[in-house]
Amino acid sequence: MEVKPNGLARRLAALLTRRQVAGPAWWSVVSRLPVYLMSLAMVLVVREQGGSYAQAGLVSALYTAGMALGSPLVARRIDRRGRRTVLVATGLVYPSALAALVWTTTPGTWAQPALAVLAGIALPPANACMRSLWARLPLADDERETAYLWEALLTEILVIGAPLMLAALMLTGSAGTALTAVSVIGGAGAIGLALTPVPDGTDGPAKAREAGRKDAGGAPGPLRSAPMLALTAVMAFSAVPIGLMTLAIPAFVDAHGSPGSTGVVYACWGVGSALGALWLGRSQSEVAVHVRFPRLVLAFALGTGLPLLAASPLTLGLALAVGSVPIALVSASEMSLVSLVADERSLTEAFTWASLATVLGDAVGQQAGGLLMEPAGPRGVFAAAFGMALAAALIAFACRGLLGRAAAGRPVPAGTEGR
After folding, report:
1. Which fold is adopted by the domain 22-216?
2. How confident is the model over 215-233, as pLDDT tens digits?
3. Is the pTM of this model over 0.90?
4. Looking at domain 219-408, which of 1.20.1580.10, 3.40.50.300, 1.20.1250.20, 3.90.1150.10 is its CATH number?
5. Distance CA 368, CA 259 (A)
């Protein structure tokens, strides 16, 4: 098949090598390496130190709790003061807290959970920071769509690749050494992102001060916007099926006597999503994002129903690969909508709340999956995931007009006119 000159790979290469874009984009990749493996790494470290699984789970849970509690406040600070000070501070505190956890504490002491909470709070907000930068950079609409598609693809790449990097580091040392190395790399990436120059007016705090924004310190500011609240609700509902399936997939594989193939089946899920973005992503910007979004959520819901047809681990892997095709596209559309419906003066915090909605939905799904597994079995949990995904699609269609009106009222970022 002939590759068009405007193919996705060429568009991504053109965007990510552009002056004043390449620096922050690639530093943000480095700074995000710890995000997708740190909970697993902490469990390995505590177990390596002789702690129980209960102690390891507590440390990992407290790290996640610190991240959930601290990230909106850290993001708000970026919106009000700019990224530089916050990213430098978190880039120093985060690896320091984790190094102290690894090398100066032992399981069962108060210091270990306390440092886990501190590390979670100090996690550099590279995801939200870079996504808000994409919204403010002087890009044409199709370039911004490409940027958010890159963000969705990067998530899939890191989810698959970051644990492999951890495993490679552990081959040359202990779990503690690997965790320390990854945290230092992530901290260096955050500092690099902080110090990399961006176009004037891109950081955002000057606009907030010019507007005399007096409500910046209130409770979750971005969620006071009805469109933003509706969007985060759709994101949370859409994440619940992911959490349910996270429990159902290994249970299904184990029930068919092939527990060793669980990792391969999981990989089909991520690979299908990445291939879907590469295959369909280049045509997405032809449809308005508020129209495209509910259609993609519905496609995701239908794909979630495919595992109900599986009869073996092989057919489950095929069902996951096909059914996951829309996932990265849904994620990219969500990010585009956040950039359009959120107040431009609080974009970093808005992206943070959007991410937390996804994390919360995933956690609820996993908890529900655990409760449903014994009475309903894996197939019953797959059915629950299908039902929740359909509910998310219904909400997305119901909110389409609200999101469309909010997106239409968003001003065009400076520097994109006439592009």
Report:
1. Growth Hormone; Chain: A; (1.20.1250)
2. 444 556 788 889 999 999 9
3. no
4. 1.20.1250.20
5. 22
